[in-house]
Design brief:
This protein is an alpha/beta fold and 302 residues long. It is built from eleven helices and 15 strands. It has a single domain, classed as Ribokinase (UDP-N-acetylmuramoyl-L-alanine:D-glutamate ligase, 3-Layer(aba) Sandwich). It has helices at residues 30-41, 58-69, 115-122, 132-136, 140-155, 174-185, 195-202, 207-215, 256-269, 274-288, 298-301; strands spanning 3-8, 12-17, 23-28, 46-51, 53-54, 72-73, 78-79, 87-93, 96-102, 125-131, 159-163, 190-191, 221-224, 231-234, 239-242. It has a nine-stranded mixed sheet with strand order 6-4-1-10-11-12-13-14-15, sandwiched between helices. Strands 3-2-8-9 form a four-stranded mixed sheet. A two-stranded parallel ribbon has the order 5-7. Strand 11, helix 6 and strand 12 form a beta-alpha-beta unit. Bound molecules: 2-keto-3-deoxygluconate.
Length: 302
Amino acid sequence: MAKRIVSIGECMIEMSGGEDRTYRLGYAGDTLNTAWYLRALLDQDWSVDYVTALGQDRYSSDIRAFLDDNGIGTNHIQTIHDRRPGLYMIHQEKGDRHFTYWRDSSAAKLLADDKSALANAVEGAELVYFSGITLAILAPRARGRLLGAIVKARDNGARIAFDTNLRPALWSSPRVMAGVLTAAASLCDIVLPTHTDEAPLFGDKTIDDTADRYLELGVEEVVVKDGSKEALIATANERVRIAPPPVTNVVDATGAGDSFNGAYLSARLTGKNLREAAEAAHRTAGIVIGHKGALVDPKLVR
Ligand SMILES: O=C(O)C(=O)C[C@H](O)[C@H](O)CO
């Protein structure tokens, strides 16, 4: 039987491009993006399931079909009858991508309402992946239910990977965001933060400060991304710094970190060392930022 990876979070309708007010419709969301690159890079010894909630509208049906067609498991996607998927638009400004969201009443906000559905979803997983965005969209009690299911999965042998993925707009305050993310990270085996996002919130001066903060929480492997600068992979015994290869063609940085995570985790799951995994991750992210939207054709990254 294939070894299971479960990624938990929100998939939205994505509008990318926007030149002459012409947009391309896609489906994306940080945890789905990572699932997408895991699916693209792993062989059929692995299954990749996406756990979220969708509605019954045409876009929810299309998202399910899109995931099915691309080999991502949809059996644990819940249906919320009177809700629809969220939506976001990407715009480019001053060399970076920015997002505007319509997601306040999306179906995914209810993904952790059913405790037994969550427990079933993570059962038998080898790796469970979630993010700070997954936590940000949930009400406080639902966050507790999700973290409870994750702790149980870990007790049953799953490894837990977490990208803190800071989105201040989705949190009630920076203090709540910092507190919840730190508590969640302390339950995880692999944490994949982005230094530039975390530095102003936590006062980190260097990528080593970011790594140390998570190592001190008991995290085994910390993967600190830093945009176009070198990434730091830190464990209690080893520190590896890997610069990305030069990239000349940045079209849209959406999904760079998520694809980095997908490639990194797929390399680690198949026995690659920290250096090899970080190199593979930079390579994949370098391809993704040359295209519009978060998801590129899997053939381009294989
Ligand atoms: O910002 C979010 O919540 C998204 O999930 C949208 C993008 O796909 C994601 O941020 C890219 O990392």
